[in-house]
Request: fold
Amino acid sequence: MMRAWLILFASGLLGLPTITVRGFSPSPTLPIKLPTILPVNGVIGGSIRISSFLASSRDDDDDDEEEEDKEESINPNDLETPDERRNRMDNVRKIQKSFYRQLQNQQQAEGSSTNDRTTTTAISDSCNTILKNVPLWRVQWTELPGYQNLLNCHVAHYTHMFHTILAGPKPWYFGHVFLPGGSENLDNPDYQLLSSEESNNKTKATYTGVLMQVADSRQLEDGRLVLVVQALERFQVIEATQHTPYAVATVQLCPDTELAMTYYDKAQSMARELSDDFLHDQDAWGAACAAALEAAEQLRQFEYRPVLVQSSTMGAVAPLVNYDMDVDVETVFPLDMDRAQAQKERVGTVMEKHLFSASPVDLPDNLKQLDLEQVGQLEHEVWLGVDELVKLLYQLNPNPTSPIVTPVPTQMLGLLPRGDCCSQQYIPWPGDFKLDQFANRLEDYAAAMPPTVGTYSKSPFVRYDYADNPLKRYPILRRAQRLSFVVWILMENIGPVGNQPVVSRQDILEMHSISERLEAARDRLKAINASLRRVADQQ
Reply:
């Protein structure tokens, strides 16, 4: 079974952007391999060819059948010319936009009259960790922060949901929540979303999800919606305010423990200074979480490169989100003292507002002091495990004279530090470490031809610290957090190895800390590499 998996893994059939290498010396042209079939996760699941549902043309055989149907048809729409059909669909879309715009205006008017948020576009207080009226897309798979997807939406209730979202202002938010069986179980009482007080042992529903944003959308002539969506932040469903035709809920955003701990001491001091009435631990933790979310919001335009639906025909919609090298670096990482101070003051204002206006947030279990050294050590060990995996695959290549395809997405290679993760200084990796050679060569190639490096086209390779300077402006914890999610793309299609159980995407999403995910990834890589090493020893 291990040999069968190895052949699949080494042949690059995991549906990932990959780098072709010979003997671990990247070729000058660094050929990038992209599968001809990309996953389009929708309520129908499975994989379909992007061009097949974006293109309007049909095969010749289909054209003959279409002519026969036209002769027998009594539907005038079947006899339309292409121009007539295009004009009719334009009118249909205008009516749709008018309907959903009126619906949005009505909901916003109701919200202002009741002093509550009733719009289906999720809006948050800048000082709060709570999002109200978040439409939920409950489907049969889990998404992780840092991932993106091309959705093919054709079911009526979810098409209606996305039209309603798109009629509102940006950002177009919705929640992605795992539901076994998808739409089949939306009305199943066993999977009903209850309030947090009612949920204990009364439902099989999943309450941990991820906040998504719609980056772009396109409506096809048959009414389906094609959307590029990107996963942003973990959340916990607090209460469902609507169950049908689709769920709507109040959710609480959940930044990783380490990111919130960055602001916890300051929040505690602020709570003590402002009032003796605060529950210092819970109030301070909520303020620290709000500060971490504000800091994440400031980095989002760098961390999430915009992608258009039309790019999918050129292979630009990769499974992982790319950093945006076109962003104004000074806006995101200001060196100007006044602008940098203004960013810090915004975070401080968010903490203060949260202390006065938001509900306390329970502290996570086993809360520990922030240990950047531990996070860096785990990050380092994960990269060593990935590097060993690549070398073992090369060793087990049945045909050493032919190239082996390493399934390491270029977006993941962009997270590779230039030196030891455990130090602020650039310390070389071990002498036999290979991944930095790939990343450095990709970086050099990207500097020469930025539009064509990455997943295939129009998705440039970006090193996380491309805007390099002595201050190392991109936060180390953000880099480690992204790695803690994206590294699992290498392992999620692998079954049990030895005594170690499979770690599902939902398991990963429900982990509350960067260290916990990195530790799980390190252990999983160790188990996989040990199995591969045993196979190599038997040869």
About this structure: The chain is about 40% helix and 15% strand. Residues 10 and 398 are 10 Å apart (CA to CA). The chain has three domains: 2-33+372-537, 37-48+84-254, 259-370.
